Amino acid sequence: MPGNMTLDALKEAVDRGEIDTVLVASVDMQGRLMGKRFHAAFFVNGGWKETHCCNYLLAVDMEMNTVPGYKTAGWEKGYGDYVMKPDLATLRRIPWLPATALCLADLLDHHTHEEVAVSPRAILKRQVARARAMGFDAMMATELEFYIFENAYEDLRDTGFGGLKPISAYNEDYHIFQTTKEESLMRDVRNHLYAAGIPIENTKGEADSGQHEVNYRYSDALDTADNHVIVKQGVKEIAHLKGKSVTFMAKYDHRKAGSSSHVHQSLWTLDGKPAFYDHDDEHGMSATMKHFLAGQLAHAQEITAFLAPYVNSYKRFCIGLFAPTKAVWSADNRTAGFRICGEHTKAVRVECRIPGSDVNPYLCCAALLAAGLAGIEGKMELEPEMKGDMYNTAGIREIPKTLREAADRLHGSSMLRAAFGDDVVDHYHHAAQWEISETDRVVTDFELQRLLERA
């Protein structure tokens, strides 16, 4: 379900005075929307063809620091431009902002006008095209979890992010009474996002105080990633407009449950048939599905840096809080990194439970798809199903425990280098190395509390 406006419909809305601003935004390495606010009249009169941005947008960190060492952009190259090419298929109204529309944009090389290889949207589009060349449409869905706080973002900034007050005082997983108290925010989240063309299904309380989840209908992989970033942006903005704040950190407090972004995946034939379904199989899984899952398991440790991109991401992987620690598969078992859902139905699918809500969905979905397609191409044999409590099962494949370990495996992955190209792998390995070095460099509150007096 792409955007809900055509360019002609936008022109009519502009003429009627209903739309006066168009956001044109590309997606950066961190999965954030970066771009410009256009006067709507300029956009419809030719601005929709292209605009430009500094190429440092794919060479900065979360703080927008210009990170040295990237091949694509740097001071030695003068930080030139990328072309931002609006994808009019994503054009939509943004109902929570007055008289505003949004259009996502692809990043193109300023000279060749080819898509920038390291841009997240381009990386996913190439894997989608690879799947189609093999005869498959890649269908995916992401579930986004987040915490809501009573504090406004401005208040948190002014107090040094102290005094966080979750909107709920207790675990509200599936809790209707508690979530009723939060309906003034969550109703707007559902209704505004739905009006923006996002096929929202539901919201629910999650497994800790103040934690929520939003679910939206599965779609093709690119549309799912587009929806994901718009949902994340929308939730933040709607909360901000109500004087509250949210976080999509994978683990904002070591005493709390982490926030995930489980990814559901299936392949369908180009004529619309479920390629993962086999009525006669024990779990309803086709040979194609088994090869796909085998590929993801074989390469799980290599792709983890794309599923858990920050040092903080790995603090979510702990026993007993529904985040996985083992990269194995099991049917309808939430202790496994790869859970099979929808057994014996045409909706049978792989749920990867490794990604956190801090993930860049384009990179995450591309990495999962690349690993699965490698499994199909290699006709990899699926390892036996694991059953029971994966947390306390020894001797089985583990999820990398740190970004440092995951980055090393990313760097050495021949599968990802074949699928993405050396330049892409090296680019994101460099991003991971920078995250590690920054975390190693900075003194934390924990260190002060633990060592200032006692050391």
Instruction: Please give the share of residues in helix.
Output: 25-40%
Number of helical runs? Answer: 14
Shape: globular
Note poorly predicted spans.
Answer: none
Give the structural class: alpha+beta
The span between the termini is: 57 Å
Rounded Rg: 22 Å
Percentage beta strand = 15-25%
Reported for the largest beta sheet, the result is: 6 strands, mixed
Mean pLDDT: 94
What is the string of SSEs from the N terminus onward? HEEHEEEEHEEHHHEEEHEEHHEEEHHHHH
- The tally of beta strands, per DSSP, is 16
Protein name: Glutamine synthetase family protein
Organism: Paragemmobacter amnigenus
Domain GS catalytic: 120-455
InterPro entries: Gln_synt_N_sf (IPR036651), Gln_synth/guanido_kin_cat_dom (IPR014746), Gln_synth_cat_dom (IPR008146)
Please explain how this structure is put together.
The protein has helices spanning 7-15, 40-47, 120-133, 153-158, 176-181, 183-195, 221-241, 287-298, 300-307, 361-377, 403-411, 414-420, 422-441, 445-451; strands spanning 21-27, 33-39, 51-54, 81-86, 92-93, 100-109, 136-142, 144-149, 200-205, 211-216, 219-220, 245-247, 263-269, 329-331, 338-341, 349-352. It is α+β, with helices and mostly antiparallel strands and 455 residues long. The strands form 3 sheets. Strands 1, 2, 3, 4, 5 and 6 form a 6-stranded mixed sheet that branches. It has a 6-stranded mixed sheet with strand order 11-7-13-16-15-14, with helices on one face. A 4-stranded antiparallel sheet has the order 9-10-8-12. Helix 9 packs across helix 11 (403-411) and helix 10 crosses helix 12. The mean pLDDT is 94. It holds the Pfam family Gln-synt_C. This is Glutamine synthetase family protein. Belongs to the glutamine synthetase family.
